[in-house]
């Protein structure tokens, strides 16, 4: 029985060795396939920055936020002194009211009192002319009879000419009053109103620009100026890091570029949040190659040509900070299109 037991023991040992070898081979095959389906990259968190400056020049009255504070879109960040801008607005408002009154007067035309006066002036001129004509005829008759000198006739004729001229002037004045202002005068008054309205609109815009607002949700990276400084459009007051979009700036070796396509899903992890990850996707692939940057932490040779790739990340808790080192794992089997905003809600 001893030889039989030995054979059975050998068979059992052989089966155990075969099973162990099969298990090891399967694990190696699985790990090999998994490794080829995942591309690991290293990079840093990046986001857009905005240099915020006032649109007009004056002294800063107050600033409402400091470095590191989160701000919302439309939130007021600071304001300038407004005395100079308010006085300009008030002056233009007064000028505009005056110009509008003048335009209204021209468009309304002559008042009834002015028309009645002009007609009365015409009637008076006619009466004066009639009286002058009668005196002229009497003087002419006296000169013919040689009762009056020739000079008196000459004087009477001159007075008659003056009376006729006054009547003509009165009639022209009545015509102007009845016709009203010239169209060109009204058009010039309207243009003057439009010009002052444009100046007032600009002055009010300058007054509004004495306040500085956040253009988007973000974090204040730096506060460059302080209250009392003179702000100009060319001098930034704050540097704002926008919270969206957030991406990982990484580099793909040329040998792996064929495995990376836009929309490919990615898994992002950082040392600051061990055990958790963020969803992401390939959003940009550079069309030109460059040498590996010094700050890229990768086991590949640094002299190898690489292509810059942006991995857009879902950042629901705002824990991804500018410049933070990050590890990206790309699933090379996935070629899905860019996820919409709802896909970011599932980020861990």
UniProtKB/TrEMBL annotation:
TM segment ranges: none
Annotated ranges, domain YbhG-like alpha-helical hairpin: 86-209
Positions in coiled-coil regions: 82-206
InterPro entries: Beta-barrel_RND_2 (IPR058792), HH_YbhG-like (IPR059052), UPF0194_transport (IPR050465)
Keywords assigned by UniProt, alphabetized: Coiled coil, Periplasm, Signal
Compartment(s): Periplasm
SUPFAM superfamilies referenced in this protein's UniProt entry, alphabetically: HlyD-like secretion proteins
Pfam families associated with the record: Beta-barrel_RND_2, HH_YBHG
Name of the protein this chain belongs to: HlyD family secretion protein
């Amino acid at each position: 029985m001893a030889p039989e037991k030995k054979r059975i023991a050998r068979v059992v040992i052989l089966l155990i060795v075969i099973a162990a070898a099969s298990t090891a081979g399967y694990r190696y095959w699985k790990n090999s396939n998994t490794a080829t389906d995942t591309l690991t990259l290293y990079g840093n968190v990046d986001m857009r920055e905005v240099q915020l400056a006032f649109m007009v020049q004056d002294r800063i009255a107050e600033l409402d936020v400091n470095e590191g504070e989160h701000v919302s879109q439309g939130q007021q960040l600071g304001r300038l002194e407004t005395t100079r801008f308010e006085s300009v607005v008030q002056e233009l408002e007064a000028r505009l009211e005056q110009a509008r009154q003048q335009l209204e007067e021209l468009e309304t035309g002559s008042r009834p009192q002015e028309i009645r006066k002009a007609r009365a002036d015409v009637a008076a001129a006619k009466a004066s002319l009639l009286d002058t004509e009668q005196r002229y005829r009497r003087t002419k008759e006296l000169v013919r009879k040689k009762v009056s000198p020739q000079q008196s006739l000459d004087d009477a004729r001159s007075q008659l000419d003056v009376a006729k001229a006054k009547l003509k002037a009165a009639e022209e004045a009545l015509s102007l009053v009845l016709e009203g202002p010239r169209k060109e005068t009204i058009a010039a008054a309207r243009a003057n109103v439009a010009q002052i309205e444009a100046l007032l609109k600009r002055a009010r815009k300058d007054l509004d620009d004495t306040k500085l607002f956040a253009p988007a949700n973000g974090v204040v990276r730096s506060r460059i100026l302080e209250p009392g400084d003179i702000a100009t459009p060319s001098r930034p007051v704050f540097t704002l890091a926008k919270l969206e979009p957030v991406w990982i700036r990484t580099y793909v070796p040329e040998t792996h570029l064929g495995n990376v396509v836009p929309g490919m899903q990615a898994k992002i992890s950082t040392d600051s949040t061990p055990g958790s990850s963020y969803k992401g996707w390939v959003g940009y692939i550079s069309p030109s190659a460059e040498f590996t940057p010094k700050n890229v932490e990768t086991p590949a040779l640094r002299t190898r040509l690489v292509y810059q790739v942006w991995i857009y990340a879902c950042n629901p808790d705002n824990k991804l900070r500018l410049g933070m080192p990050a590890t990206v794992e790309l699933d090379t089997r996935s070629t899905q299109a860019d996820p919409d905003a709802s896909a970011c809600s599932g980020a861990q």
